[in-house]
Structures are given as C-alpha cells and as structure tokens.
Design a protein that fits this description.
The chain is mainly beta. Among the domains are: about 50 residues, no CATH class; about 35 residues, Complement Module, domain 1, CATH 2.10.70; about 140 residues, no CATH class. Helices cover about 5% and strands about 30% of the residues. It has one helix and 22 strands. Strands 18-19-21-22 form a four-stranded antiparallel β-sheet, with no helix packed on it. The protein has a three-stranded antiparallel β-sheet with strand order 3-5-4, with no helix packed on it. Strands 8-9-10 form a three-stranded antiparallel β-sheet, with no helix packed on it. Strand 13 and strand 14 form a beta hairpin.
Length: about 350
C-alpha cells in the first residue's frame, strides 16, 4: 500500500506542474533560409541627401525596399529585391535563371500577346499595312492605326465646284476643282497633289509628323516661315525655319497688270540675281517667282510652293545654307488675313502642303 500511495502522489505532482505551465508560450522558432539568400533591403532606410542623376532615358524610381529613389535597371541589367527594373519601359525582373534561390535576376521585356486582323495573326510590336490607306501596329493585343492619306481641305473661294475623285495609280482620293467655263482634259491647275509623306508616315519606330509651313512673316521683302517636324534620326519635334519673300516692296507691281484686269497673280523679274543675307551672297543666281497684287480688295497668296536649299558664301569665306521658300503658283481671292495675326493659325486656311522636296 505504501508504494501505491507514493505513485499516486507522484502522478498528482506531475499533473499540478502541467496545469501551472498550460498558459506559457511555446519557445520561439527561428526560420532558417536553407539557401542563405543575401538580404539587400536593410532598415531603417539610409538615403543620400539628393537623389541620383540618372542618364537620359533612365527612370528615377523608388527602390524595391520602398526606401530611396534610385535609377531603374535597364534591359539586361542584374536586378534583385532592391534594384528594380524600369517598368515604364515594360521591363520586369526575370529570376528563372537563378533557380531555386531566386535571389538575382535579369531585366527583360514583358512578352505581349499578338493581334488578329482579318484572319491574320500579327506578333506583338509588329507593324503592318492592312491597306494602302493605313499603317497599323500591334501592341499587346491592341491594334493602333494611322492614316497614310493626308486630311486635306477642299478648295474654297476660288473653286466653285470642288469634288473628291479616285485617280489612277493612286490610293488616296484627291480634291480637284471643276471649272465649267474651261474644259480641261488634264487635271485642273488648282488640284493639289498630296503626298502621304507630308503628313504622317512610319519611319522605323517613329510616326513622322510634319506641320504645314506657317504664312510668311512679311507681306513683302524677306520674312520667315516656320513649321514643326520630327522627321529626324532622334524622332524629336523641332522647329524648322525657312526664308520667304512673297513680293518685293520697292517695285510697283500694279504697273504690270494687263489692261482690263484687276489682278496679277504671278510676278517675275526679267533678270536672274543672287540672293543676299547678312552680307553673304548666294553661290549662284536665281530668278524666283513672286505673288502679284490686285487693285481691288483681293489679295494674292501662294497655293503651290516647295522648299529649296540655297548656299551662301560670306565675306570671310565661310559657307552657310538656308532653306528658302520657292513659289510655283499663286492665286488671288477675297480671303485675306494678316500674316502677323497670332490667332490666324487657329483657323483652317488653305492648308495645302508644299510640293515634295
């Protein structure tokens, strides 16, 4: 009996000890990284006083630790949890080559889905031309297109019956002006041929866009005309300038108007002469055309022109080149405007591009 009593007391003491420790927390277990990965993020954050100066075209982004601003990694660069890829350029960190650690990766482009159009599958980023009027691009399942036909305005004021026609061997329809009093077998002289390269065309990975030349800054003697274009190797919008001369100021053109007429649409000097600018003289003589004048309320403006390059030789022997407006034809009408009116370009006005250079 004595040994039985001792056994009961021992069991009771064990139960009492277990009941007292039932509310105690289990010992902490420390997680161990089996691959011993490098810890790139460290807290608290320690950032430089000023953010880094990133190279041109590289995004300044918050790092993967959400601590500091850093220059984003580019395609082919090594990336990790702290050094993030430039997601503005569609890059992500590809860890597939670092299995099973997944510690370091390489910045790669996201693979987009292709596109389907009229039963044809196009890959992501592929440019294609579904017809002669459009140029399209597949971007991650979406198709974007631009017109290859210039959106020209019909002739106004001087054209009583404008119409759009389909010409042989041409994709885009063209505006022509019917002149009922004069039957012409060929295209009327007021019809302007529009080239797709003067508006929007695809050039490598750039949609080339060029505005029309602005009106000449002066109504007589030398002025300036400007336009905006990204037709360059950097595909950057830049302002281009050319010299223009609608008519000479020191010549009375009204003396050359024929009897019974009120307008002279084209004036041309009898002799060729060299252009001069700031003491520099053109290397060869020219005989340009000028717009004429009217004795009534009409004005004469260019409706067909092109841009030529003129080389000048300066007194010190230096050579320089200028783009110059070369007038081919003018017409006289009642729609006159002040070339110095800053609001004039807000209105649609004989917006015909010049002849292809």
């Amino acid at each position: 009996m004595r040994w039985l009593l001792l056994w009961i007391l021992t069991v009771a003491s064990i139960h009492q000890a277990m009941s007292q420790n039932s509310t105690a927390m289990p010992p902490a277990v420390t997680a161990v990284d089996p691959y011993n990965r490098t810890q790139y993020c460290k807290w608290p954050c320690k950032c430089p006083k000023s953010p880094p100066d990133c190279p041109l075209g590289v995004s300044l982004m918050m790092d993967g630790c959400d601590c500091c601003k850093a220059c984003a990694m580019q395609a082919g660069d090594t990336c990790n949890e702290a050094d993030v890829c430039d997601h503005h350029k569609g890059l992500y960190c590809d860890y597939s080559a670092d299995k099973p650690r997944y510690e370091k990766g390489v910045c790669a482009y996201m693979v987009g889905t292709g596109c389907e159009h009229n039963g044809v599958i196009y890959r992501n980023g592929q440019s294609f031309q579904p017809s002669c009027k459009y140029q399209c691009l597949c971007v991650s399942g979406a198709i974007g297109c631009v017109s290859l036909c210039a959106d020209s305005q019909p002739p106004r004021v001087w054209c009583p019956s404008p119409r759009r026609v389909k010409l042989r061997d041409r994709c885009c329809e063209q505006w022509i002006c019917d002149e009922p009093r004069k039957i012409r077998k060929a295209m009327p002289r007021h019809a302007v041929e529009v080239s797709a390269s003067d508006n929007e065309v695809w050039h490598k990975n750039c949609v080339t866009q060029t505005t029309s030349w602005s009106p000449c800054s002066k109504t007589c003697d030398r002025g300036l005309s400007m336009r905006i274009s990204n037709d360059n190797s950097q595909c950057e919008m830049v302002k281009e300038t050319r010299l223009c001369n609608l008519r000479p100021c020191d010549i009375d053109i009204t003396k050359h108007i024929k009897p019974g007429k009120k307008c002279l649409n084209i004036y041309r000097e009898e002799q060729s002469q060299n252009f001069t600018i700031s003491g520099c003289v053109s290397t060869r003589p020219y005989r340009p055309k000028y717009c004429g004048v009217c004795t009534d309320e009409r004005c004469c403006i260019p409706y067909k022109s092109k841009t030529v390059q003129v080389d000048f030789r300066c007194p010190n022997g230096a050579l320089l080149s200028w783009q110059v407006m070369w007038i081919n034809a003018c017409f006289c009408n009642l729609s006159c405007r002040n070339p110095n009116d800053i609001f004039a370009d807000l209105e649609r006005y004989y917006d015909y591009p010049g002849i292809v250079n």
